[in-house]
Amino acid sequence: xxxxxxxxxxxxxxxxxxxxxxxxxxxxxxxxxxxxxxxxxxxxxxxxxxxxxxxxxxxxxxxxxxxxxxxxxxxxxxxxxxxxxxxxxxxxxxxxxxxxxxxxxxxxx
Length: 109
Known about the structure:
Shape: elongated
Structural class: mainly alpha
Number of domains: 1
Radius of gyration: 16 Å
Distance between the termini: 40 Å
Largest sheet: 2 strands, antiparallel
CATH topology: Multidrug-efflux Transporter Regulator, Chain: A, Domain 2
C-alpha cells in the first residue's frame, strides 16, 4: 500500500497494513509497535517474521499515539489506553446498532 492510498483509503477490516505503514501513520517506531504487540495490546494478522495488521488498528493507534504525546505516556500506559479505546469503539457500535432498532418516532434527538 503506498502513502497516497494509506492517507485516503476507507477503513475496512479487510484492508491489511504492514508494521512499517502502521508505524509511519501513527508516528511511532516499529520497535514501539513491537512492544505493544508483546503487551498483547496490538494484535498482528501474521507471525513475527512479517507482521501485518488489520486496518481497523489505524484509528485507535493514531488516537493512542496522540494521547501519548499530549500526556507523555510510557508504552505500558499506551497499551492500557489502546485497550480502552477499542472497548469504547465497540460500545459505540453497539449503541448505534441498538438505536437503529428503535422506531424513528420514538428516537430522542
